Structures are given as C-alpha cells and as structure tokens.
Amino acid sequence: MATSLTGIGILWAFLSLISALASCSGYYLPYWIKGELTKGFDTYFGSFRRCNYPVLNERGQIELLEACGRYSTYADIPSPWWQATTVLVGVGSGLSLLLSVTACAACCISYLIHGRMARIVGFFQFFSAVLIAVGVALYPLGWDNIEVQQACGGLSKPYQLGPCELSYSAHLLLGGTLLLFVCSTLSCKASRLKPGSFRV
To answer: Is 76 helix (H, G, I), strand (E, B) or coil?
Structure first.
C-alpha cells in the first residue's frame, strides 16, 4: 500500500476517523441527558431527539411511550438554544466525517494529500471542533424548558441539571471534540510531500 502520509499522518487519519465517529454518534444518539418522569421510568434527551416520553393516546389520556424519536419539525425542538445546538453540532459533526474520509483515503492513495493540503484539512478539523464545542456550550442554556423540568423534578435551569445527569452521548461528543483538536495539530506533520510534487 503506497501512501504519502508519514507515521504521524497515519495516526492522524486513524484518529480523524475515531473522532468523526464519536462526534456523529454523540450527535445522533438522544442520550445527552438522563432524567426520570416517574419512578423507574427513565427519559433521555438529545438536541433534536428524545427517548421515553409522554404522548396522548386515542382516548385523550396521557401514556408513557417507551421509544426514541425526533421532534416532528425544527420548530418543535423545545428551546431555541437546542435548535442552535442542533445546527452547530450537526454541521461540525458532518464536516468532521467528510474530513476523516479524506484523511483515511490518503492512507491508500498516493499523492492525495501534500503538506499544505493536510494543514488545510487540519484547519477545518479545528473549525468543526469549534462548531461542536460552541453548540455543546449552548445546549445547557435550554435546560430550563418544560420537558427537562418535568424529567428533572422542576429543579433544572441553565447549566444546572438538578437530579438529572449527563449521559454517554455527551461524553462521546466531548471525546470526539477533544480528538478533533488533537487531529488539527497532528495534521501539520501528516504528509511527506511538498506542494507541486507529482508521481513519476
């Protein structure tokens, strides 16, 4: 297998893929916050999805549905802060996935990435990490919405969850974001090719 990547470049490509998968999984899975609607009935929230929630049945009574789903429309997301988080983290995660595919392809294809190109990819990895970090930082501002209030005993407010707790999707996002920052640094030493090099 011919590659123009250095040993650090191969590590960069591998970590890029891991960070993108962690970020995208953390974004999509609705396990950012864990709360409890009734004794023994846990509920989970993400920025645009939730699991185990109350619904009206055909008789007009409230029943607890054990399923995961997204909000029907963007406007149904219960907080403008969560709406902003959905866009920022979604764009950042999608961008990180695109960049990781480029980095991984450079492991198999010679002359795909030269030094300057690797640094450009690293810059965009830094940018995607910033988008995700800003989105995650805005998310707690929406913890005072009625849905989280119901799941957290009415004690949640911005940056304070009360009896609720952060769940594993939040940890995936944090890990993926930190790895993206590391990858943006590693990109500076990822390729042994200089700009203008060509295959003979």
So the answer is: helix
Contact (CB, 8 A) for 91 and 146: no
| pLDDT surpasses 50 at 36 | yes
Distance, in Å, from the CA atom of 123 to the CA atom of 35, rounded to the nearest integer, reads 37
Whole-angstrom distance, CA of residue 38 vs CA of residue 156 = 16
Burial 69-78 (b: 16+ CB within 10 A, else e): ebbeeeeebe
DSSP E strands, the chain: 33-38, 41-45, 49-56, 62-70, 165-166
Measured CA to CA, the distance from residue 46 to residue 77 in angstroms comes to: 10
pTM for this entry: 0.89
Main-chain phi, psi angles of 60, to 5 degrees: 80, 15
Distance of CA 66 to the CA centre of its chain: 24
Q: Stretch 17-22: mean pLDDT, rounded?
A: 97
CB 36, CB 43: distance < 8 Å: yes
| Per-residue buried b or exposed e for 30-61, using 16+ beta carbons within 10 Å of the residue's own CB | bbbbbbbeeeeeebbbbbbbbbbbeeeeeeee
pLDDT computed for residue 200 by the predictor: 42
The per-residue pLDDT of the chain, averaged, comes to 90
CB-CB contact of 194 with 59 (8 Å): no
Count of residues making up the chain: 200
Maximum alpha-carbon separation in the chain = 75
